[in-house]
Design brief:
about 0% strand; DUF1778 domain-containing protein; 4 helices; mainly alpha; toxin-antitoxin system; Ribbon_hlx_hlx; about 90 residues
């Protein structure tokens, strides 16, 4: 028996002008109003999430980051020991 995706209901009060605009836009695209609104909301949500996940750096932070990539600090002794253990574990004879 095939399973269907679960759904949730969303309700919002909007002005009659906005309702008319959404209805007109949906008709222009040959969609139902529900389909039009769901698609628009999904795009807006994805953009909001993507923008929130982007790391923004000041010019000074960018320069500091680039310098760390170009001239990384010397590895700490614990890191060197960890790499040695890793190499030993991965060595195939």
């Amino acid at each position: 028996m095939p399973q269907t995706a679960s759904t949730a209901r969303l309700e919002a009060r909007i002005s009659t002008d906005l309702h008319a605009m959404l209805k007109r836009a949906a008709e222009i695209q040959g969609r139902t109003m529900t389909d039009f609104v769901v698609a628009a909301v999904q795009v807006a949500a994805q953009q909001a999430i993507e923008q929130a996940e982007v790391i923004r750096l000041s010019l000074a932070d960018q320069a500091c980051f680039a310098q760390a990539l170009l001239s990384p600090p010397q590895p700490a002794p614990a890191l060197e020991r960890a790499f040695a253990r890793r190499s030993k574990l991965l060595r195939t004879e």
